[in-house]
Design brief:
By secondary structure, the protein is α+β, with helices and mostly antiparallel strands. The chain has 2 domains: 34-39 and 116-186, Outer membrane lipoprotein wza fold like (Roll); 49-114, wza like fold (2-Layer Sandwich). The protein has 4 helices and 10 strands. Strands 7-6-10-8-9 form a 5-stranded mixed beta sheet, with helices on one face. GO terms for molecular function: polysaccharide transmembrane transporter activity. Residues 118-166 form the Soluble ligand binding domain. Keywords: Signal.
């Protein structure tokens, strides 16, 4: 029956069906507000490098990377879960494990030595992975990636961010702060 329809009508019908199917795709939650997801204590994840100090225990004091499974491997106590923990929470976990197996009343301090990288894609001079510095905004991240190209939309960018294990996506102004692990996408402007 569709064979006898004029080509323009078939094309319009096909476009309408495809547009309707686009709404069936699962969507990720929108990024509420960039500042809302930046506030609060920093949560550790894969790629963060931590400086762990166990006082009076030089053999345990070292830098450790959070692995892809979200753990930190320490001598004598093995893997300790670090993903989505604050440094204070991880300090308590390590102190508890050391105290129950190796040391009496261990004094543990943790600081982030290097944050996990962020990524900039799209209409920038040098898309890629970059080292995060506390206080960065989308604008400073884009500057680190070689700045906008001549075709870039310079007012807003898309961002993907994981918060509490959930992936959020949305548009933010370039003056908004970013976090380690964010993926920033600069789109091409229309005119």
């Amino acid at each position: 029956m569709l064979v006898n329809w004029p080509p323009l009508l078939r094309t319009l019908l096909l476009c309408a069906v495809l547009a309707g199917l686009g709404g069936c795709a699962g969507e990720r939650p929108p990024l509420a507000s960039a500042s809302a997801t930046v506030e609060g204590p920093y949560r550790l994840d894969s790629g963060d490098v931590l400086r762990v100090v166990v006082f009076d225990q030089p053999s345990l004091t070292n830098t450790y990377r959070v692995d892809q499974a979200g753990n930190v491997a320490l001598p004598l106590i093995g893997d300790v879960a670090a993903r989505n923990a604050t440094t204070d929470e991880l300090q308590a976990r390590i102190a508890q494990r050391l105290g129950s197996t190796v040391l009496r009343k261990p004094d543990v301090t943790i600081e982030v030595a290097n944050y996990r990288p962020f990524f900039v894609l799209g209409e920038v001079g040098a898309p890629g992975q970059y080292e995060y510095v506390p206080g960065m905004t989308a604008e400073t991240a884009i500057a680190a990636a070689g700045g906008f190209t001549a075709r870039a939309n310079e007012r807003t960018v898309r961002i993907s961010r994981t918060v509490d294990g959930k992936l959020y996506e949305g548009r933010i102004a370039v003056v908004q702060p970013i976090r380690p692990g964010d993926t920033i996408y600069v789109s091409e402007r229309l005119f």
